[in-house]
Design goal:
Length: 616
């Protein structure tokens, strides 16, 4: 029953709730006039959210802060002039698959996906660099011009930006890691469905800092659990290390987008049983409810009478008198040939489920070692990954959190364990979860065995692992599931910059005037950028047809029809309009002149008035 408060509403707190729903990270605690701690809005952070320049200001408050925090907000919100290009040759089953493998910096990828995947992802799992001093590479376009450093680090990303290793000697060791994670987690949250969940692997190096920023980004109320995973089987047995505490656990933080909406699916790993009997309550099985006395020392009180029956000498009931009497009164005891049995109903037993314990034992979920052994079996020993998650960990979360058709994302995908686990879980329970993997194509050292084994960057390893895992799962289970994936790669926009910076108009040459699209870009490239801008998912079916010599692209039937060829004739336009597309896209140069353009608008008004017409 709700208790009346007999007070007017606390509108301030209601307003804070409204702001918190949009920007959970700006809610903090601060002292009120009477010295009480109250939930409050951090106006500096709110201002920063609403501004595209750095906002100054500092006041004492409860929060985790570090140099670079506000830049992280700016960085996360800053638009980028990039797109995704399809890489059909590296894809598997391009036509039919719903899975995506995206190559690029995950911050850029997350930004590019904001329209198409807003509120679409059911479960995000990430296993970011733990900041061990060796594992976190970061881009630094400003501070170093020293060629030597470049050679030493040996890493250049796809756009020629240098990647540096974050070592403890870096004065911003923790700050740089936090800045990197904060920007990514903030925008990743937008992609989660309202009933979505994010899981983040971490170890002792940054677990305390991670908890601070995730509480802020997702809201403390949305914290669900910290799972402790026994990640290591063998102790480190060299030198002094063997006398120190042996760290053998890692953690997985679990947050929901909205804890009121998230639902867990019960899983049942119990034995298969048969239920040969049936009554008005359903099918049931019978088991004994008597026990033999061991050594004759059992108390006589356990041989009490129920329904005129007393266990014979040497036997006793399995429970106390009240309990057994209760079972009898409620119809859970049946006498057969004068002997009592306990009835177990099928519907009750199958409703039992395994609790989702926050301790993940190595027996149940495997260890880092077993994850690596499995990868060695699939790829050989030269894959170069030290930290591979066993797929059993993912299997548990996939079965309890995701269902048919749900989308799963991993934007630090490494060797692709999450993709492998999605396939395996689908093969076992017949559901059709889909995945998006994201991985930075970090170059592999030319002298390493991994390079010699044929892999030039980490994405090549990830894709090959998924291909081989798919083959193995298919051979082992025979399941007809989606084993494919579409590959996309981050690249600069398809459009020439000059068209978007009018101040540079004077610098344009004649070629630039002729086309606003870069010469090396194809119709498929343009189609993908249009899909991203229109918020269409990248796994939608796409088809291209030749109509009177022009290439016409169809996305999901008539959801989007596009033609990027020059001088498209009226009869081609008519054919497109007859399909009544929801959206149609042409290029400027698709029309001979202004009158041709006006003509197209008239044609659509006549044949398909609800079509939205757009021009590149
Ligand atoms: C700890 S590993 C993930 C391992 C993975 N869970 C597995 O089982 O194979 C982290 C991965 O994130 C990648 N990574 C780091 N920074 C990234 C970024 N900015 N964008 C995309 N991937 C990144 C690293 O290259 C590395 O492969």
């Amino acid at each position: 029953m709700n208790k009346l408060t007999m007070k007017s509403k606390d509108l301030t707190q209601e307003n804070i709730d409204k702001i918190a729903a949009i920007f959970p990270s700006v809610v903090t605690e601060a002292m009120d006039g009477q010295g009480n701690i109250q939930r409050n809005i951090d106006f500096d952070l709110l201002k920063q959210e609403l501004s595209d320049v750095l906002v100054e200001g500092e006041k004492e408050r409860y929060q985790l802060t570090w140099p670079g925090k506000k830049e992280a907000i700016l960085e996360g919100n800053r638009p980028i002039d990039k797109t995704l290009r399809p890489v059909i040759k590296d894809s598997l089953n391009w036509e039919k698959t719903q899975n995506l493998y995206i190559e690029g910096d995950n911050l850029e990828v997350l930004k590019i996906l904001q329209e198409s995947y807003l509120n679409k992802v059911k479960m995000i799992y990430i296993d970011p660099p733990y900041n061990t001093g060796k594992d976190f590479l970061y881009k630094d376009n400003f501070s170093e011009t020293n060629e030597e450093y470049l050679d030493e680090s040996g890493q250049i990303d796809e756009n020629g930006s240098r990647l540096f290793q974050n070592t403890e000697s870096n004065g911003r060791f923790h700050s740089d890691w936090l800045t990197m994670m904060y920007a990514r987690l903030k925008i990743a949250r937008n992609l989660l469905r309202d009933d979505g969940v994010i899981l983040i692997s971490i170890d002792d190096n940054e677990s305390h800092n991670l908890r601070g920023i995730t509480d802020e980004i997702f809201g403390v109320n949305n914290f669900l659990a910290t799972f402790v995973w026994k990640s290591r089987r063998k102790p480190i047995n060299v030198g002094e290390a063997k006398f120190k505490p042996q760290r053998c656990s890692e953690y997985i933080l679990m947050y929901s987008k909205n804890s009121d909406k998230v639902q867990f699916m019960p899983t049942y790993s119990g034995e298969e049983r048969s239920y040969p009997h049936e009554d008005s309550k359903g099918k049931y099985r019978l088991t004994t409810i008597l026990k033999s006395n061991r050594g004759g020392n059992e108390r006589a009180t356990m041989r009490f009478e129920i329904n005129g029956y007393v266990p014979p000498e040497g036997q006793r009931w399995q429970g106390g008198e009240d309990f057994i009497q209760d079972l009898f009164n409620n119809g859970y005891i049946e006498f057969k040939n004068g002997v009592p049995f306990r009835k177990y109903y099928q519907n009750e037993e199958e409703a039992e489920h395994d609790p989702l314990y926050t301790f993940l034992s190595e027996e149940k979920t495997g260890s880092s070692e077993s994850g690596k052994t499995y990868l060695n079996n699939i790829l050989g020993n030269n894959h170069g990954f030290d930290t591979v998650k066993p797929k059993e960990i993912l299997n548990i979360f996939l079965t309890t959190l995701t269902n048919n058709g749900d989308l799963v994302m991993d934007f630090f995908s490494g060797s692709g364990t999450t993709a492998d686990s999605v396939m395996q879980t689908n093969a076992i329970d017949g559901k059709s979860r889909k995945y998006i993997m994201v991985q930075l194509p970090v170059d592999i050292d030319k002298d390493s065995p991994t390079y010699k084994a044929g892999y030039k960057n980490i994405c090549e390893i990830g894709k090959e692992r998924i291909r081989r895992a798919a083959k193995k799962i298919k051979e082992e289970t025979g399941a007809e599931i989606d084993y494919g994936f579409r590959v996309y790669r981050v690249d600069s926009s398809n459009m020439k910059d000059v068209y978007y910076t009018p101040d540079k108009l004077g610098q344009m040459n004649l070629d630039d005037m002729a086309s606003n699209i870069k010469e090396d870009r194809t119709g498929e490239d343009l189609l993908i950028q249009v899909m991203l801008e229109c918020g269409l998912e990248l796994s939608l079916p796409m088809e291209s047809k030749e109509i009177e010599g022009k290439t016409v692209h169809y996305v999901a039937g008539n959801s989007l029809i596009a033609c990027f060829d020059d001088e498209v004739s009226e009869s081609v336009i008519k054919k497109i309009a007859e399909d009544q597309p929801l959206r149609v896209v042409f290029r400027d140069s698709s029309f001979r002149d202004d009158s041709a353009r006006i003509n197209v608008e008239e044609l659509f008004k006549l044949l398909s008035p609800s079509t939205e017409i757009q021009v590149l």
